[in-house]
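Last lecture ended with a question: if I hand you only a sequence, what can you say about the shape of the protein? Today we answer it with a concrete record. The protein is Probable cytosol aminopeptidase. Below, first the input exactly as provided, then the predicted structure, then a couple of comments.
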Amino acid sequence: MTALTLSTAAASGLRADAIVVGVAKGAKGPVVAPGAEAVDKAYDGKLASVLETLGASGGEGEVTKLPAPSGFKAPVVVAVGLGAVPDDSDQGEKDAYAPETLRRAAGAAARALAGSKKAAFALPLEDAEDVGAVAEGALLGAYAFDAYKETGQNGKNAKNGKAPLAEVALLGAKPRDKACRAAVERATAVTEELNRARDLVNTPPNDLNPEAFAAVATAAAKEHGIKVQVLDEKALAKGGYGGILGVGAGSAAPPRLVKLSYTHSKAKKHLAYVGKGITYDSGGISLKPAGHNETMKCDMSGAAAVFAAVVAAARLGLEVNVTGWLALAENMPSGSATRPGDVLRMYSGKTVEVLNTDAEGRLVLADALAKASEEKPDAIIDVATLTGAMVLALGNRTFGVMANDDAFRTAVHETAEEAGEASWPMPLPSDLRKGMDSSTADIANMGERMGGGLVAGLFLKEFVGEGITWAHLDIAGPAFNEQGPFGYTPKGGTGSAVRTLVRLAERTAAGDLG
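The predicted structure:
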């Protein structure tokens, strides 16, 4: 993990490989952002014009490197684009860049400095919130998953010779300021757990089956004082978890249900997080077509997010009880696999006719939702890479939010946006429920093709306990980035929804969610 420090040192005298400054997109060209005044002065106030000559515009995520001015101990200045100069008309006296803007800029700079030992970030820092945003962005942007690559000396990757940026110093953030220190401590805890979720998503499925995932969760729980309970295939059979068992029936690696319980003595509220943990999804007997299998190690991203959020809540000592449920199974075709047309008796007692074994996530979640409901939490939030339909609706960077309570859906959406995660509220139209009627069972696991993401949400709603507030996050789009990296987001597992879940826990602890 990249080390992070606060520093009031002058940019010119700091020993580092690079000084990172912000540059915004002004009406007449690039504009040097606050925080870089000393660097700009060393260029005789002409840093913006030099950057413009080099082709920089200040566009978001744009990175421009240039030699540091004479007298600087760092050899390079890295200018990172912040996008448009902020309109401060509604900001009062604060000419502020949004936290997410700073987060993305810091991430882009950290990625560009892979292979460097130390970089000083002289980005706009108006308050502790800005400090936390830059810290998060830098720590997330410096992420790399090299566990399966041949490495040389000093842990450097043998192929590209670059290790992640080793150390970040935030200039202008006072080390003795309590709020700034707290912001960095929070950013460190959240990003370390988010990056652990990324590691899990990126781990090949031959090394991360349900049993292995459960072992990772158990070890982390013990380290951070979280109670853990793991139900193996025998306990699942005894308990009547037909959904989880049905999905895992075709695999040589049996399923697991993991319960993680973080409690605080002063907690007044209880949240339950439920994560879909399909460690590999072949589609089962309803086999996925060629070209759709290669990234299906990511189908446990929801469980990874829940796991990371519970551990982060424990590390932060939040005054709220948080229970995480990881519904883990591998969906494979074999002679013992569940077939289309089979009927499963779920943990809740309801029966489900399986029309498509590739609609398996909702089956494992249904059992976990019913079990979580027994504890009567104040709210349940499930997270899942559930439907391709949600990707078609919202694209690859935005997750959908559904709920059985409109006010709660709004609160979750607003919380996600506050945390820097793109989301969008989606409806649960009651007319789509009829499409899941079955002449054989209580409900089918498939309904109308159009609005498939909403149909899946309606299916899950059937298994939430009466009177319990519930939200469903379909992260199928943003959970795994198959394109090039951007901002603080790497290629591969992203850790989608972790920050939203942590922020929900924080808001609940503070009494902001009712």
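Comments.
1. Confidence is low (pLDDT under 50) at residues 89-94.
2. The longest helix spans residues 178-202.
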